[in-house]
Design a protein that fits this description.
With about 170 residues, the chain is of the alpha+beta class. The protein is built from five helices and eight strands, in the order H-H-H-E-E-E-H-E-H-E-E-E-E. The strands form two sheets. It has a six-stranded mixed β-sheet with strand order 1-2-3-4-8-5. A two-stranded antiparallel ribbon has the order 6-7. A hairpin with a 2-residue loop joins strand 1 and strand 2. It starts with 5 loop residues before the first helix and ends with a strand.
Amino acid sequence: MTLADCDRVSEIRIRGWQRAYRGLMPQSYLDSLSVAEDAALRRERFTRAADGGGGEVVNLVAERGGAVAGWAALGPYREGEVRTGDAELYAIYVCGDHLGSGVGHALLEESVRRAGTSGQARRMYLWVLKENTPARRFYERAGFRPDGTEEPFEVEGTAVPEVRYVSPLEG
């Protein structure tokens, strides 16, 4: 990912939230999400990481026909505020026009490959909304399994529980 990709990544991320989480969290919250605000935050984080501040996160983009079609972010697993020796897939989103085209699978495979070749991480974790059945099926087809850990997540007073998935990494 480059700095120039930030606007498109934010568009994919926000539209992905609005599409995937419809009915799973308050619609008023989803409607309030701003591509412009997300892009400004993403550019700030990207610039800070490039300047040596917080470069632990790896941002990947997938392109189709020269345009960004998907985005993934990974880094150290976060156990509260503590970074562990394992890896975490923080996010993966695909443009609606490219759902089911293999873009998400390619991003997930590359994320797992990069985490596994770091030589440090033995596992990769990710969190997914408990009721997000399509995403859960996607991760399960790729070899991730729920490990029984759930975490409360609240959006505008509505409980939106997440479940943790894990997959071993090959070093």
